[in-house]
Specification:
The protein is of the alpha+beta class. Strands 1-2-3-4 form a four-stranded antiparallel sheet, with helices on both faces. A hairpin with a 2-residue loop joins strand 2 and strand 3. Helix 1 packs across helix 3. The protein is globular, with a radius of gyration of 14 Å. The two termini are about 20 Å apart. The relative contact order is 0.18.
Length: about 120
């Protein structure tokens, strides 16, 4: 299973995967109308492209046979949502395809991020 940075030409695939995993994780906990609007904005290709272009934000994913199974979004410095600690690394998002949960993928991505 490969762990690598998301390339610019993969942003559309990342957007689709991010929506899918977020919906699976949180749809049952939210108001459907609010949730639909949030998904449309938060995981749009234009928003993810802007975040991807920020030199202090980094998207990585794990793929198995070229199929995404997990991703992580890391923020440094000014890209962080909490500006208190300038020397820290923020994990803004980390999601695993439900079919691949309980295999240590999340832990291995966190270890890669801090390693």
């Amino acid at each position: 299973m490969q762990f690598r940075r998301v390339e610019k030409n993969e942003i559309g695939a990342l957007s689709a995967f991010a929506k899918e995993t977020f919906i699976h994780t949180y749809a049952h906990l939210n108001n459907p109308e609010y949730f639909k609007n949030y998904i449309k904005e938060a995981f749009s290709i234009s928003k993810i492209t802007a975040e991807w272009q920020n030199p202090n934000s980094h998207y990585y994913w794990k793929k198995e046979e070229d199929i995404p199974v997990a991703y992580i979004k890391l923020n440094e410095e000014a890209a962080q949502t909490d500006q208190c600690l300038h020397s820290s690394l923020e994990i803004e998002r980390i999601y695993v395809d439900p079919r691949f949960k309980r295999r240590g993928l999340g832990s291995s991505m966190i270890n890669h991020a801090i390693g």
